[in-house]
Specification:
The structure is a single chain. This protein has one domain: Tachylectin-2, Chain A (5 Propeller). The chain contains no helices and 21 strands. It has strands spanning 13-16, 22-23, 34-39, 44-49, 55-63, 70-80, 88-93, 99-104, 109-114, 120-124, 141-147, 150-155, 173-180, 185-193, 208-216, 222-230, 235-244, 266-276, 280-288, 294-300, 312-319. The strands form 5 sheets. Strands 1, 2, 19, 20 and 21 form a 5-stranded antiparallel beta sheet that branches. It has a 4-stranded antiparallel beta sheet with strand order 3-4-5-6, with no helix packed on it. β11 and β12 form a beta hairpin.
Length: 330
């Protein structure tokens, strides 16, 4: 079995491609509220939405191979998947490229689907701490990513046993879970602290700050995408952190994170931006550029039209990612 590195690779940086968020069209598909995205090679990506539409969306995105800028981005079709839940938040392509895992926030589940048929072909065992009864305000399993032999997920904000949701004075304690091996057996579980809300607004009552996606890199590193909604005039802010698990406690058997009797994951800020009305909830590693850097592609959830939210793609450039080590032959 391939083991990931626990110490984050030094020297990773994220820069903008020099382009504003790019409108992601749905054509005649009706795709909306996209909250997760995964790369399938070439110009092909797959996405899911959290509006109850039981479809795996096929997304065509063409990028400039020199700058990483988006040339075109469009939902081109959908794969009907009757076994999907009502609140699909994360998606991760399987290692053979024939299946995807999808996380559902309401059901607190991760299910594997065939891209050829849309049928359910497997399910991941979820630790009981994530059960639906422990989820606060629809802030459950939002994240999903596969890389370097491991599947990763995490809840958006604190579970009921783990304390309060994010406030202006403190972030929220969440649990990041890794799964190992061909059957994706639950492995180590880590504690992670989200950022606090910058400022409350008199105009809304849904301010939040949480973990909305994870990205497992081919070298074993993991990135975290945080999303905040706050400010006097409310707007979205996105942040990407590099995680370092060195010395972090396994909190699988810790009944509550509110006591602080553990060592959390260390996070280092790589990029942040006020993204206005673009509510970015999904991130994936895209193709390599001509200079050796990689693209990062983000997707935003346009919600139900509130706050003029947009459905966008957005490209960033990840610099300094070394080539992955060769596979271990057992």
């Amino acid at each position: 079995m391939v083991q990931p590195d626990t110490a984050a690779q030094p020297g990773l940086t994220i820069t903008r491609s020099g382009q504003s968020p790019f409108r992601l069209g749905s054509g005649s598909t009706g795709a909306a509220e996209l909250s997760g995205i995964t790369y399938a090679g070439g110009t092909t990506y797959y996405g899911v939405g959290d509006n109850g539409d039981r479809s795996i969306w096929q997304i065509y995105t063409s990028l400039d191979t020199r700058t990483g800028r988006i040339r075109s981005s469009q939902v081109t079709g959908g794969i009907t998947a009757p076994g999907m839940g009502s609140d699909s938040e994360g998606i991760a392509a399987g290692p053979d490229g024939n299946t995807v895992w999808i996380s559902d926030e309401v059901a607190s589940s991760i299910t594997e689907f065939s891209l050829a048929t849309g049928l359910k072909v497997g399910a991941v065992t979820i630790p009981p701490i994530y059960q639906s009864a422990n989820v606060q305000n629809n802030m459950g399993l939002e994240s999903l990513s596969y890389g370097h032999g491991k599947l990763w997920t995490g809840n958006e904000e604190a579970l009921k046993p783990d304390g309060a949701l994010s406030t202006t004075s403190a972030g929220s304690w969440v649990r990041i879970q890794e799964f190992d091996g061909p059957d994706q057996t639950p492995g180590t579980q880590y504690a992670y602290r989200t950022d606090p809300i910058w400022r409350m607004s008199p105009f809304i009552t849904v301010e939040r700050s949480g973990l909305v996606d994870l990205l497992a890199l081919p070298n074993g590193d993991v990135l975290a995408l945080e999303r905040e909604l706050g400010g006097f005039l409310p707007h979205f802010r996105s942040r990407v952190y590099l995680l370092d698990f060195t010395g972090a406690s396994d909190v699988t058997s810790v009944p509550t994170l509110s006591t602080g009797s553990f060592t959390p994951v260390v996070k280092s800020l790589l990029w942040q931006s006020n993204t206005g009305f673009s509510n970015f909830e999904g991130i994936t590693l895209g193709p390599r550029l001509s200079n050796g850097s990689y693209t990062l592609l983000l997707v935003s959830d346009n919600g139900s039209g509130a706050m003029a939210q947009r459905q966008d793609s957005f490209s960033l450039v990840l610099n300094g990612l070394a080539d992955p080590p060769p596979p271990i032959v057992m």
